[in-house]
Write a structure and sequence with these properties.
The protein is α+β, with helices and mostly antiparallel strands. 34% of the residues lie in helices and 24% in strands. It binds zinc ion.
């Protein structure tokens, strides 16, 4: 490795002994589905212990209040777990942000709870790639950087939230606040099995539109009714028809209705939009507002729109391109080819990018089949990706990104 400095080599040598695999196995044994508050509390405790090995104080921050529309139209508060925060050298001239999430998509009642070796070197288990493996990689890289004779010349904040898999509603404001003033950010979502990173990402918006009509007897006086279900269905069709190349629209569910002999006065349409750019997001919002107004007028019903674009689009701008290029060059010096490709998937990288901070958000392990019971981690990638992070973090502080 002729392009590595003495200090870089020394830091990289410290990575190999990191206890990453044991950490992943311990952490993945804890169910931390986004709605499992007890499991999240246990997970937060384990992570707080592990990250206490770094300088700075680990704190667990209360989630911001979040509400959601229930099937009957009521707006209820939803509980979330606490978020981990660590600030190291907050006064350093160059500061970085590293983020991860402790929650998984597998709830306490999901059948997928156990790990097994699918074949030598391939660990199958809930959250092993997404992203308990990634958190182990992040920690190993930071420990390698902090373990040398010299203090690193940069500071950093670590945020590990508990609600990423449900869109980070209770941690978005925290991430925004802590992203401010950072030179660059790294998020530890998994790379693809061959190591490919996610480049540009589409945005995502989730909406619940509550439709209130008027009930009437289906046989005696249907003309006096205002059918909320039909209005919701009409809304779904028009939104779908209005979507196009700039944004996709997925009407996902209609709650509501009632007995066959009653004109239903209540329905809720759930819909997801995926805009490719900020402009496309505005177009989607315009379509939604306009169509809601039309439906209200034509069906003589009331509509109330709940939700928003929680994940702004993450385009590959010039600054982000430079950060990716830095990661690619670090990979080249380690003999690890790095490529990236655009995706329609979303993560906290979307929200960090929206703060104007360049972010590479797939710095975690190589793995695949995430969000399914076939999720796997390629165990060799733990050391490989921790070395990649170590070198990238050392160099990003020197380069003006
Ligand atoms: Zn994830």
């Amino acid at each position: 490795m002729p392009n590595l400095s003495h200090a870089e080599k020394a830091a990289l040598d410290r990575v190999t002994d990191a206890p990453m695999l044991a950490q992943v196995q311990q952490w993945a044994a804890v169910n931390s589905g986004s709605r499992n508050l007890q499991g999240l509390a246990e997970m937060a405790g384990l992570l707080a212990d592990a990250f206490a090995a770094l300088p700075g104080d680990v704190t667990l921050l209360d989630p911001a209040p979040v509400d959601a529309v229930a099937a009957d139209g009521r707006v209820d508060l939803i509980a979330h777990g606490r978020h981990l925060h660590l600030a190291v050298r907050p006064d350093a001239p160059v500061r970085l942000l590293l983020t991860g999430h402790m929650d998984t998509v597998f709830g306490i009642d999901h059948p997928f709870q156990k790990q097994r070796w699918q074949e030598p070197g391939i660990l199958n288990g809930p959250g092993v790639a997404d992203m308990k493996g990634g958190i182990a990689v992040m920690l190993a890289a930071l420990l390698a950087l902090e373990g040398g004779p010299e203090t690193p010349n940069f500071g950093y904040d670590v945020v590990i939230n508990s609600d990423e898999e449900v869109g980070s509603p209770s941690s978005a404001a925290l991430l925004r606040r802590i992203a401010m003033g950072k030179a660059a950010a790294f998020t530890y979502e998994p790379a693809l099995p061959d190591g490919t990173l996610a480049g540009a990402r589409a945005g995502s918006g989730n909406f619940s539109i509550i439709v209130t009509g008027r009930s009437a007897h289906a046989g005696r006086n249907p003309q006096d009714g205002r059918n909320a279900l039909v209005a919701a269905a009409d809304l779904a069709l028009r939104l779908k028809r209005g979507s196009g190349s700039g944004f996709s629209c997925n009407p996902a569910r209609i709650d509501g209705g009632g007995p066959n002999n009653v004109v239903p006065d209540h329905a809720i349409l759930r819909v997801n939009f995926r805009p490719r750019s900020a402009e496309d997001e505005r177009a989607a919002r315009d379509l939604l507002d306009r169509t809601i107004a039309d439906i209200a007028h034509e069906h003589d019903v009331e509509l109330h729109c709940h939700g928003g674009f929680g994940r702004p689009p993450k385009p590959m701008d010039e600054r982000t391109g430079r950060l990716f290029d830095l990661v690619r060059r670090c990979g080249a010096d380690l003999g690890v080819p790095i490529a990236w490709r655009d995706t329609g998937g979303v993560c906290d990288g979307n929200n960090i990018a929206a703060c104007g901070i360049a972010v590479v958000d797939t710095m975690g392990v190589r793995g695949g089949s995430i969000h399914s019971d076939a999720e796997f981690l390629i165990a060799d990638s733990l050391v490989e990706r921790a070395r990649l992070s170590t070198l990238t973090l050392m160099r990003v502080a020197h380069e003006k990104i």
